[in-house]
Amino acid sequence: MKRFHLWAFGIATLLSAASAGTILNTKHNLSVTGPGTIKATTETEVCVFCHIPHNARPGKPLWNREMPQSAYIMYESEYLKRTNYPLPADLGITEGTPGSLSRQCLSCHDGTVAVGGVYIVRGSILGNTLIDMIGVNADGTMPTTAEGFIGTDLSIHHPVGIEYDPTNVKNFDVGSKTIELKTVPDAPLKLYTYNGKQYVECSSCHDPHIENMKFLRVTSGANHGENVKNTCISCHDKNQAPWPTTHEVAGMPYTDQGVKDRYNNGGDVSVATLYCVNCHTPHNGLGKPYLLRQVEQNSCYMGAASSRSTAPCHGTGTTWAGNDIESVLNRIYSHPTNRIDGVHTNFDTLYGYGATVTDPAASHSVKWADSKHAECMDCHNQHKLGSNNHIGTQTASATKWYPDTPSNAVSDVLRGVQGIEPTWPAIWTQPTTFQTLAESTKEYQICLKCHSYWALGPVLAPAAGEIATAATDNWIDSENVRATDQAMEFNPNNKSAHPVVMSLNNMPGSYAPRGLDTWGVTDVMWFPWNQNLGNQTMYCSDCHGADNEASGDPKGPHGSSFRYMLKGPNKYWPTKPDGTLFTTADIQADGTVPDLFCANCHNLNYPHKQWGWRMSRWTFACVECHVAVPHGSPVSRLIGYTNFPEPYNYNHNGVLQLRIKGYRKANPSTNINVSNVYAPSCGGGRCHRRNAQGYADGGAGYDPVTPLP
Question: What pLDDT does 208 receive?
Fold first, then answer.
């Protein structure tokens, strides 16, 4: 009798503790008293579905089920493979092997073993007899529709049976990328040691006896959303400087009631609340791999919501001004984010055209040059981006475009992104060697990953008479305009270039005066480009961006309705909206030119209409003197010669436009006589018919190695 009282006291104590907040009130109570939809019809014992005090099967603690014999599709990713991270081939079946604890959990959750298929009940070996259950399939297994169903495809779930190795690193030429794991996970998460190494199992994050949503070990949060967030960051060290990121602090709320119910008992849920799980889900991610909620960019559009219209993210249905990036990406001229999906990582950047892939043999070894893509993560690091855009508090008028603080340093929205830095070769030569950067410091280093030899290979302008076809990747728009090597164009050793790489005064290849001279005119450029002339740098995205960034469109070169994604009040070059060429005759008295893109920044009353020498007496097309791709030139002031190839020599209605055969930059501070400035400079048949040496006719022509100044 005494023995019975002790036993009864122990059970009563357990039940009392359970009632206070343990397994009795969870879905793991599979007895007839359980609260879930899957439970026994008559069985009253609670623990028997997993444990038995005597004669236990292999597994711990005191396991009462058979190990499933399933062959699992294991989690893998190109990212992990490229870092040579140790990946499991399968889950262990033998007790004490990596993955065996997770296989025990899967004896219910993989859907291959009957939920009621236990070994012993009250001393009786059941054999093939099952505990009768409701909510299961006819064979007693968990239905695929059950919320707890995992299946045998573990590639869409957080990896288990996997080694925890925070020392893993991938080196770039400059910098490195760690696997971003904490040295030791924060309590109460657990790791399991096998053969001296630590591993992640299902029960690293979950305690099957805890009464909370999803059995998370972390219970300190105010709601389920905070518990999930704190579970993730217990291992994953994403809070690296600079911190915090936009996705960590953004207060935009979800209106999706399902998200509210799941993560905050029906209360308000914001981007900051969900943190990691805006984009990721530990189970059943549709975006393989990386546990993305949706396929690649769709995760950015929808977040955790069931529709774009209920998510405060970047999809078409968002009500948050400036957030709808999806619509912009669907415009006719855009980066192809919505059109290309495939196996890729940000380690692709390591391998440009001609590079040797040194990744482990198990990886796909995708090379940037062979797998061109423009995913969101190619330009943004969602774990490090900030909220401030480099354009800042821009202002605009009907005719002028004013970006703030001219600079080429990466902005907050671009920080932490891989890039490349060319080794700058001789003048007007395609750079073919580069340094890979774990984190870009200049915006152009991100852009040149695609817009240079690194992705394009040795493909420049088409040869004379070549017919454009869509058989090559090297086209930038629907009109089959071939992409050019912008690293070659912005090369500081050229005679001229927009100051994307460095300021004009620092360009080693340019002759003095390197920067634009005022020539006695106060506003050579419009504000702020008239400040500290020659010492500024600029972004690629000062010129390229969305249709209307001043009011509504998300800032940045995502997409546009205008060719080349030109932005600002004036969006056309080198032809007007009616298809005719812009000419000097279009320059207005105030220095503006309606629709002409260049007039957003340049006061065209200088030098074209100064000192009584009025070019408007004649009509010269801009592209008769200047290259049609105005990034840079082997000739000063973006001048181009008659024998330049397309597209630098603009082909308008079948006629190449460049007229100049030689050009010498004059210094207006010492020589402002118009005849001396121009007469010896222009040698085209339409102009002065003199070459750069001042001799009539002839012309020195175009020499790509030693061009005229």
Answer: 93
